Every structure is written in C-alpha cells, then in structure tokens.
Amino acid sequence: MLMAVAASCVVLLVAGCSSVTQGRAVSNLYDPFRAGGLLAEDGPSGVKDDSPDPTGEVQNGDGGDVDRLALLSVNDIVEFWQQNYAGALAGQFTPIENLLSYDSEDPSSPAVCGTGTYDEPNAFYCPGGDILAWDRGVMVPIGREFFGDVSIAALMAHEYGHAIQHMAGLVNDDTPVIVLEQQADCFAGTYIRWVAEGNSPRFDLSTGDGLNHVLAAAITLRDPILGPDDQDLLEDGHGTALDRVSAFQMGFMAGASECAAIDFDEIAQRRGDLPMELPLDDSGGVQTGEVPLDEGTLSLLMDVLGEVYRPAQPPTLTYEPAPCTDIPPSPPASYCPTTNSIWVDLGSMQQLGSPADESNYVLLQGDNTALSVLTSRYALAVQRENGDPLDTPVAALRTACLTGVAQAAMAGSIATPDGRTLSLTAGDLDEAVAGLLTNGIAASNVESQTVPAGFTRIVAYRSGLSGDRDLCYARFK
C-alpha cells in the first residue's frame, strides 16, 4: 500500500477462525457451505486406495514414487479429456506422446527441447516435440510434501492444458504468455472440478482442506511483484496470485469453454484498475509496497474507509479491550456492535502483517494481510448500520465481498477530506487472497467464524473487487 502523507507504503495480511454452521446464500456458487457449487467438506484427499497402477513409459525416469505419481496424474488427466474434450473445444483430443522425467539436482540432467534442465526445477510442455516433462528431483517432491498428491495432478493438468491449447487451435506464436498461462490455469481448474466431483478413479479431493491445498500450490507459482521496469511481464509473465486463482476458479466453476474464451482483453478487463506494479520512490528506487503497522497507519485506514463506505455512524478504533455484551475480543481485531467500535491488538496485527513468504514456510503475508482484516471489521459496522444480522455464514461472505469493494476503491484516488490517502500497491491483493485461504479472518462474521471453503472466501472477495456494495448484497443475502 501507499500512504500519501509521508510518502511511505502499505500492504495487507490475515489470521485464523473456526467454521460457521448456519445460513443460506442466493446461489450455489455463493452458498457458504459450497465450493463452486459443490458441498464444502473435509475428507480424504490423495491417491485412492483402489487406484489402478500407472501405465505408460516415462523417458529418463527412475521408476521411483515421484515418477509414479506424475505418471498416475497424467493417466488421470488423459481420461478426463477423453471424456470431456468433445463438445467443449474444437479439434480432436490426442494424448501427449512423450513423457519425460529429469532430476534438476543432477549436473548430467539432459536438455529438453533445447533447454538445459540442471538447476531448473520445473514442469513444462514442449509443443515442438509434444513432450511433457517434470522435475522429479526438486519441484514435484516439494510440491507433494507441502500441498499433497492432488497438487501434483493439478500441476500436470496445467502443463497438459498447454497441449490442449494447441489441439484446440486457441494459440499461436503471437499469443501473449499471460494468455497461455491463464488458459492453462483455467484448464487445470476444470480437471480438478472433475476430481472433486468424485469422477476420478485415481484421486480423491475434499472441497475443504484438500481444495485449499491445491489453491495454495497455485499461489506459490505466482510471478514476483513487478516494478516499473517489468512492464513486459504484464504480457509475458505467468500472473499474480489473484490472476492464477481467478483463472483456476473460472475453470472450476464454468468449464473448458470458459477457458477457451480467455484472451488478453479478458485478462485486462479482469485486472481492471487494480495495481500491477510497484511505483518508484523519491530517490528513483522501487518502493517496497509496505507501510508501518502502527497507530498512525490504522487511524488513517479508518478515515479512508469512512470515505469509501460513508456510514452515518462511523465505528471508533480502540486498542484497549472494552467490555462488549455481544462478543469477546478476538485478536488481531474484532468488532463490537454494542459500542460500534473496533478493538485491535496491535502486537497481533503487526505479527500478522509482517512480510513473509514461502522462504519463511508460510504461504504469503504482508501489511495488507493485516489491513484487510481491519477493513473487514469496518465492513461489519456497515452491515450493522444497514440492520443486517452479523453472526451468520452469509454475513461472513458478505464481509469478504465488502472488503473487496473497499480495497478496489483504495486502488483509486480515495482520500480523506484533508487530502490524505492510503492506496493499494502491487502485491497487496495477493497478500489478502493468501490470508483468505490460510485463515479466513477477512471473510469471518462478528463472532470471528469463517466458512469451510477457502475457495468460497476468495470468490466472495473477488466479487467485491469487481463489483460494488449492491452486488455484495445481491449475492450474499
């Protein structure tokens, strides 16, 4: 985020909650107890006990468990497309001819499609040789360890998506890389929907924790935050975490024909005016996009949110836990309807917003992980003023949606009456999305309860980013 007064910067982070147990939304897609229309529940995720053995030949493979999992994934993806390609896409489905495994830690690892693979942990499709390759040494084992077996199937489905693009005639040599990658993310979502519906003979996937892990894996493959000199990556990158999750969700909810419709114009429209690159500071260096999480910043955020939401009775901010007849205080921030006040545990808020990523063994966090939480508590005050119940599952999703509305506004020129601003910068939205997935506080109700599926929390937040207050009330009522 960017704070105008002192020319310093801000970003956002998140914390954890339990599940709510009642309520109803207007559509299956926005139901608190569903994920993309499927019942949201925890359960087994991974290779089925009665899964068939993998079949086929892996060139340069070692016959180990990693290659067996990758091959099993490819077998499953082939079966999916054999059942679902016709009628959804042009052309004809033909399985990839060449599957290849390599070890990126081995200096003698072979070149594939003219590219060296030593010290290159990756998975990729090479259209020239019709080759699907994966790194059995680093990338697949690490993905499997942290995100589970189905995340590897999703990874292979993304790479297989590049082959699908060519079969369907969707791309050519002039197609921007971002379009290639967003279509492939979308195709992966279409396949994962099939698995989550129980159609795969090889994998189980729960729509609660299991699907959360698949989404988390997608977030780790985001592009780094861009600076002013990285404009080319807007077309030639793989996308932000929000880009990647959004495309995956499009495929999961709408299917392959929706993926085929993705082009650069669609991506640009989806991104809208949201910040995509960090600005320069006064010395000409790239800003960090982070602001100090202190009382001054939080007070400024409250003033900015007052301009965004325009409540008749703005909530007050306090750092001392006062008695609340409605709910007990819940770190890092909670809203008390009785006093119309937001209590913040500053230490917990600062910990939640401390910059960190996968190198610190967390998904992703930063100042907006924390600031989106405070924004969500303000959104509860807006709902209170409107006379809405605050303790339901629908309230949790409406809160996420209204948080998205505020954050989209903060990407623009919202200012306080005395001219101060607190603006979103590149990376802030990714921090909010990761927080929604890992703990869901910004998608929780007044009792700090969230809904089971991180998938649905993110859908609600995205609704607000691209919509307005009326849309939030129409979808979550």
Top keywords for this entry?
single chain, mainly alpha, 17 strands, signal, disordered N terminus, three-stranded antiparallel beta sheet, globular, 477 residues
Q: How does this structure look, described?
A:
The protein is 42% helix and 10% strand. The protein folds into two domains: 223 residues, no CATH class; 172 residues, no CATH class. The longest helix is centred in the N-terminal third of the chain and has 20 residues. With 477 residues, it is mainly alpha-helical. Strand 12 and strand 13 form a beta hairpin. The strands form seven sheets. Strands 2-1-16 form a three-stranded antiparallel sheet. Strands 7-9-8 form a three-stranded mixed sheet, with helices on one face.
Please summarize what this structure is.
With about 475 residues, the chain is mainly alpha-helical. The chain is built from 16 helices and 17 strands.
| Mean residue pLDDT | 92
Report on the biggest sheet: 3 strands, antiparallel
Overall body shape: globular
Whole-number total of structural domains = 2
Amount of helix: 40-55%
Poorly predicted segments: 3-26
| Count of alpha/pi helices | 16
Gyration radius, rounded: 23 Å
Helix/sheet category: mainly alpha
Distance between the termini: 31 Å
| Largest sheet strand order | 2-1-16
- What portion of the residues fall into strands of 2 or more residues? 5-15%
Please tally the β strands and state the result. Answer: 17
SSE topology:
Blueprint: E1 2-3, E2 8-9, E3 18-19, E4 34-35, E5 38-39, E6 46-47, H1 65-84, E7 98-102, E8 123-126, E9 131-135, H2 139-147, H3 149-167, H4 177-196, E10 203-204, H5 209-220, H6 233-236, H7 241-254, H8 256-260, H9 264-271, H10 295-309, E11 316-318, E12 333-336, E13 341-344, H11 346-352, E14 356-357, E15 364-365, H12 367-385, H13 393-409, E16 422-423, H14 428-438, E17 449-450, H15 454-465, H16 469-475
Parallel strand pairs: 3-17, 7-9, 11-13
Antiparallel strand pairs: 1-2, 1-16, 4-5, 6-10, 8-9, 12-13, 14-15
Helix pairs in contact: 1-3, 2-3, 3-4, 3-5, 4-7, 5-7, 5-14, 10-12, 11-12, 12-13, 12-14, 13-15, 13-16, 14-15
